[in-house]
Write a structure and sequence with these properties.
By secondary structure, the chain is α/β, with parallel strands linked by helices. Helix content is about 40%, strand content about 20%. The protein has 12 helices and 16 strands.
Length: about 400
């Protein structure tokens, strides 16, 4: 797939706003005729093997900003119109770079940030935020950071300024394995394949999938392991074949999932049921190994199943990214930030940055529900989400929705 290069948005002042500054006596009387930039930063991995995650999130943020701006923009606290401007930074999935990026964003005039890709970065970034809002003895950064990708459990509880909008994987896989037991009553065994050196794939297999499979009545036979940057999976697929499970799980991201699937095809290993990691329910996987991955079942919190989701997906592609459960969370995050900007009366002026950030933080903390692309997102007091989800199955060209749980 040829990507459209992503162009960074440049600050543009409207004629009304320019005149208000340039002409003597031009005051705030006609605030409704003014237009102001509302600056929001994004950050994520745009280097190395995880580069697609950051690229996709940036594309979704820019697509959402375009959609909001072309729909009339935001109504600010004094009636002026706000136009969202997005800048995106590469933290390389490096914890120190992530902290430095968060500090850089906080030192600017950004009212909020969306990111980042890796749990190993989000955790220290949330650690340098103010732990409890309003604590006079806490010198932490006061900047609302709304995570769109990192999946490690419980991260939002680290700071009152940290929020996440990621699917609840324990619920998703508990539901999926129970459904598989009903669909395949003769199936008895499960075997795992796990990307051992990446926290999301490792945690999801050991802490979520295995327990969900056992709870549903399956016997877990064991697992094979590999690394995020491995390219040879001969031995691991050989172990899978020898275990001969009824259900084969691949808890890995698209890069190695495709490598494993291609090796499975080479070794003519075809288990009755294949289950994948949420993060692999991406168009990128189908582009690389759609034929080999055919039949792979994954629960996901995004699929273009309605007009709004389809429009969001199309705009994200237009901006050079793939729409999946991670990138479209960035779209939803920007929409939620835009909502609280209007509800809290954010001003988006050079002398109100700190006040604006505090209002956005308070607004996000108070949200109990928000409209997501698949339906209503429930927001928890800890700053997490409970999102609707569906099951999709891979075909050579698309992810087909095969079941919609009552969630």
């Amino acid at each position: 797939m040829n990507r459209t290069p992503i162009r960074r948005a440049l600050p543009v002042a409207s004629l009304a706003a320019a005149l208000a500054v340039a002409l003597p006596g031009a005051g705030p009387a006609d605030a409704q005729d003014q237009e102001r930039e509302v600056r929001i930063a994004g950050f994520g991995a745009q280097s190395g093997v995880l580069r697609p995650f950051g690229v996709n999130s940036e594309a979704a943020m820019r697509a959402a900003a375009e959609h909001i701006n072309e729909s009339g923009g935001l109504t600010l606290g004094d009636g002026a119109t706000g136009r969202i401007v997005v800048d995106y930074f590469d933290d390389r999935c490096d914890s120190q770079e992530g902290i430095a990026t968060a500090r850089r964003i906080a030192s600017g005039d950004y009212v909020a940030a969306v990111g980042t890709t890796c749990s190993s970065v989000v955790e220290p970034v949330f650690g340098v935020l103010e732990t409890r809002a309003g604590d006079p003895e806490d010198s932490g950064i006061e900047l609302p950071v709304f995570t769109d990708v990192a999946m490690k459990l419980g991260l939002a509880s680290l700071s009152d300024w940290g929020f996440r909008n990621v699917p609840d994987e324990p619920d998703m896989y508990r539901d999926l394995f129970a459904w598989l037991k009903a669909q395949y009553p003769e199936a008895e065994t499960v075997y795992g394949g796990v990307e051992q050196d990446f926290v999301h794939s490792r945690q999801t297999w050991y802490d979520i999938m295995k327990g969900a499979a056992e709870e549903a009545g399956f016997e877990v036979l064991g697992e094979s392991q590999w690394g995020l940057e491995d390219t040879d999976f001969t031995a691991q697929v050989g172990e899978m074949r020898e275990a001969a499970p009824d259900i084969q799980v691949i808890s890995a991201h698209p890069f190695t999932t495709c490598g494993v699937m291609m090796e499975m095809a080479r070794q003519d290993y075809a288990p009755e049921v294949l289950v994948g990691l949420t993060s692999s329910s991406s168009p990128e996987l189908l582009e690389t190994c759609g034929r080999e991955a055919t039949g792979l079942i994954i629960p996901t919190s995004f699929a273009p199943v309605n007009a709004e989701a389809s429009e969001a997906a199309e705009l994200t592609v237009k901006h050079g990214g793939y729409p999946d459960l991670h990138s479209m969370a960035a779209w939803e995050n920007l929409a939620m930030i835009a909502r609280v900007i209007e509800e809290e009366g954010v001003m988006a002026q050079s002398d109100t940055v700190a006040e604006d950030r505090a209002m956005i933080r308070a607004g996000l903390a108070a949200l109990q529900e928000a409209e997501g692309l698949l339906g209503t997102i429930e927001r928890t007091p800890e700053g997490e989400s409970r999102k609707p989800f569906v099951y999709v199955s891979a075909t050579p060209e698309e992810w087909e929705v095969i079941h919609t749980p009552m969630n």
